[in-house]
TrEMBL record:
One of its GO terms (molecular function) is transposase activity. Residues 9-149 form the Transposase IS200-like domain. One of its GO terms (biological process) is DNA transposition. It comes from Rufibacter radiotolerans. This is Transposase.
């Protein structure tokens, strides 16, 4: 078993990438993004997640996060992914406006069948690729990368204009989620 991408240091701050299977674009609808935002808020308020920065892109999201002393970050992420997968799969299934419903369900079901750990569907890729941000330089690089992701993708001109991001918080505004800003 690989130990390269693990949250070994419970006091550490980590850059985390969470992607959909097949990199399928799901977060093109506001209601799906809001499931992620609401779930992050719940994890902050009830599970010990400390969120420093975040961005939701169409097929993945990045977090810079840590956890309180009594809650391992890996356990919080596991619970977050399990809950959001169930909630998102249900939202897709029940959304009468979802024109890609059959195609998305086929992708999630085919990935679930290939994975012996799943019983039906798989929404998220397994690894979060946590990278410990143990230097100021690395922290600054990952924070810049995270916030510039929507700009580099051509979605917005300014990072703070992407509403599903903490870039507005770092630009002096008020975003969606309570953060502990990096200095």
């Amino acid at each position: 078993m690989s130990t390269k991408y693990k949250t070994h240091n419970q006091d550490g701050i980590y850059f985390i990438s969470i992607a959909t299977v097949e990199w399928v674009d799901v977060f093109t609808r506001r209601e799906y993004c809001e499931i992620i935002v609401d779930s992050l808020r719940y994890c902050i308020e009830h599970k010990g997640l400390v969120l420093h920065a975040w961005v939701i892109m169409p097929n993945h999201h990045h977090l810079i996060a840590s956890s309180t002393d009594d809650k391992p970050l890996a356990a919080i992420l596991r619970d977050f992914k399990k809950f959001t997968a169930t909630k998102l799969l249900t939202a897709i299934h029940e959304n009468p406006q979802e024109s890609r419903k059959r195609w998305l369900q086929w992708i999630f079901e085919s990935n679930g069948r290939r994975n012996p750990n799943n019983t039906h569907q798989q929404f998220w890729q397994h690894s979060n690729h946590p990278i410990e941000l143990d230097t100021i330089l690395l922290m600054g690089q990952k924070l810049g990368y995270l916030h510039q992701n929507p700009v580099e993708a051509g979605f917005v001109e300014e990072a703070s204009h992407w509403i599903y991001s903490s870039a507005a918080d770092y630009a002096g505004g008020k975003g969606w989620l309570p953060l502990v800003l990096l200095e």
